[in-house]
Structure formats: C-alpha cells, structure tokens
Design goal:
With 193 residues, the protein is mostly helical. 85% of the residues lie in helices and 7% in strands. The chain is flat. It is found in: Cytoplasm.
Length: 193
C-alpha cells in the first residue's frame, strides 16, 4: 500500500492507496484545483463549505463521465450488432459467390466445348474493336499527360509572378509607410515653425 503526503488548499494530508504515487498526486491535485476554484469564486465560503461544493462538483463530473461511458458502451453494442449483421451478410454473399463460381465453371466448360466458328469470329472481331478503342484511349491519355505537363509549367510561372507581385506590393507598402511618416514629421516641423 502506498502512503503519499499531498497538499489540498494549503493543508497536508496523508493518502493511502493501492494506486501508484503519481496517480494519488494527480487525484489530490484535481481536488485542490476544484477547492481553490470555488474559494476564488466565493471568498466568503468556509473551507468545509468549499470542500462540500468541490465534492458535489467532482461527483457531478463523475456522473457525467459515467453517462459518457454508458453512451460509449451503447455505441459499442450498436457497432457489435452491425458487425454481426455484416458478418451474416458476408456469409450470405460467400454462399452466393460460391454458387456463381460453380455456374461460371459450368459456363467455361460449355465455352471450351463450343466449336462454333461464327461465335469465335464474333469474339475475335469484338477483341479487335476493343484493341482499337484501347489504342485511341492511350493516344488521348498521352495528349492529356502532355497538356498536363504544360499546364503545370504555366502554373509554376504564374505562381512565380504572383510571388514577385506580392513582394512588390509589400515593398510599395513599406515605401508608402515611410512617406507617410516623413509627411507626418514634415507637418509637425511646419506646425512648430
């Protein structure tokens, strides 16, 4: 058992507990802060009244944390229910997937056994058409990539010009400020004469 001497509102207390010394200091610090806060807000309170009000505030904090904890547990339970529902849905989808895989296997066997030359010619024509479309898409993509590189270069130049303009504006602001100061000094000088 740990015994720790702590100060609460300037009074020393010996705390005993199974917890670590650091934890006991943290608890005492929390209570000390609450008591001092209440005494600062109402200097006419006695120490015992401040202690009672601190205890009420601490219990209020505890109840609020308990409510947050219960809400958290409820959310965890909701998530667990959703997870169970998702697991059931996944199991169902796995069954459907297995059925589709079996059906796909049957279709592949039928396709292998199909020697219909017209069907094969259709598929070759379709494949040729897809290859042509793919070549067009690749050319278009290359053009877009080239245009993208050009736009990045233009963007970089514009950013440089913008930065230069910002520096010029700052420089002009400094000159304006210096001129205003000089003008004010000159006005003062003229007024004094």
């Amino acid at each position: 058992m740990n015994i720790v001497t702590v100060k609460i509102n300037g009074v020393e207390y010996n705390l005993k507990g199974e917890e670590q010394e650091e934890y006991l200091h943290k608890v005492a610090g929390y209570v000390d802060k609450k008591v001092k806060n209440i005494l600062e807000n109402n200097t006419k309170l006695s120490t015992s009244s401040a202690a009672i009000l601190s205890a009420v505030n601490i219990v209020d904090d505890m109840f609020k944390k308990q409510r947050e904890y219960e809400n958290f547990l409820e959310k965890v339970e909701q998530i667990q229910r959703k997870q169970k529902s998702y697991e059931e849905e996944v199991a169902s989808l796995k069954g459907q997937l297995k059925h589709m895989q079996e059906y796909n296997s049957e279709l592949q066997v039928k396709l292998k056994n199909n020697t219909n030359s017209e069907y094969l010619q259709q598929k070759e024509d379709e494949l040729r058409r897809l290859k042509e479309e793919m070549e067009i898409i690749q050319k278009t993509a290359q053009e877009y990539m080239k245009e993208n590189v050009e736009l990045k270069a233009q963007n970089k130049e514009i950013k440089f010009q913008l930065q230069s303009a910002k520096y010029k504006v700052i420089d002009l602001q400094h000159k304006l400020l210096e001129n205003q100061i000089s003008l004010a000094v000159e006005k003062k000088r003229i007024i004094h004469y």
